[in-house]
Specification:
It is a single chain. By secondary structure, the chain is an alpha+beta fold. It has a single domain (2-241), classed as Creatinase/methionine aminopeptidase superfamily (Creatine Amidinohydrolase, Alpha-Beta Complex). Helices cover 32% and strands 26% of the residues. The chain contains five helices and 13 strands. The strands form four sheets. The protein has a five-stranded antiparallel β-sheet, with helices on both faces. The chain has a four-stranded mixed β-sheet with strand order 1-2-3-13. Strands 7-8 form a two-stranded antiparallel sheet. Helix 2 crosses helix 3 (40-53) and helix 4 (112-131) packs antiparallel against helix 5. The longest helix has 24 residues, at 10-33.
Length: 242
């Protein structure tokens, strides 16, 4: 059933594109409004409002700030006030399909160690996105991403949190693991979300016959250049508010 759900029709692909735009727009509005002193619960409430206004209903909203970002991968929002660093995770459905994305904001310059982690997850997610193509299996893609984790200096962090998933009518149709012989085909959607303690990169993509389409891009978001196999990609990073 999971495989059948993951094979999207042309109509479902168009619905996924619309859902990605709506989720990205809601996230953009909320991230632009975040200020130090707001509680994680207030940020959550604002994102819930913005998604509901767009006809998107809840599966999960997760928010963490400052030191809490480094203590887990699925943060439950609390009444803690944001001081400098915030991470917002959105997983929302519309007409059954589920879209996921994560964005981070930092007030002032992020520490160099955090910048390095964010560049690492941006590199790993670029590997995922660039090689998630028809003819590959989820296991082979995951194996290449494991190599990317090691090359980025974080060889074991993939063990602490799932790094890649197939999306559809469930937030997680398939979770990519080593040796998974599940073929990738055009029309499937994936939410790659590699994370290293304190940093995460997540977008939802749609696999096309000729290329992969990122459904949750936010115009104007701060990006960094990532080179994979000789090609340069721009990937979202921590949005800095100076």
């Amino acid at each position: 059933m999971a495989r059948l759900r993951s094979l999207l029709t042309l109509d479902e692909g168009e619905r996924f594109r619309l859902l990605g735009k709506l989720c990205a727009a809601a996230m953009a509005d909320v991230m632009a409004s975040i200020q130090p002193g707001q509680s994680e619960q207030q940020i959550t409430a604002h994102l819930a409002e913005q998604t509901e206004l767009r006809g998107i209903h809840p599966v999960a909203i997760m928010v963490a700030s400052d030191e809490r970002i480094f203590s887990g991968h699925h943060p439950i929002p609390k009444d803690k006030q944001l001081e400098r660093y915030g991470m917002v995770i959105l997983c929302r459905p519309k007409r059954g399909l589920v879209c996921s994305l994560t964005r981070c904001v930092h007030f002032g310059r992020p520490p160099e160690a955090l910048r390095r982690k964010m560049e690492a997850v941006a590199t790993i997610v670029t590997v995922f996105i660039s090689i998630t193509r028809p003819g590959k299996t989820l296991g082979s893609v995951f194996a290449d991403a494991q190599v990317a984790c090691a090359q980025a200096g974080f060889p074991d962090d993939w063990k602490t949190h799932h790094q890649a998933v197939s999306s559809g009518y469930e937030p997680r149709e398939f979770v990519a693991v080593p040796d998974l012989a599940e073929d990738i085909v055009a029309s499937q959607a994936f939410a790659w979300n590699p994370s290293i303690q304190g940093a995460k990169s997540e977008n939802t993509i749609l696999v096309g016959p000729d290329n992969n389409e990122i459904l949750t891009s936010i115009a104007g978001w701060l990006t960094i250049p990532i080179v994979v196999n000789g090609r340069e990609y721009l990937r979202p990073t921590i949005h800095e508010v100076i």
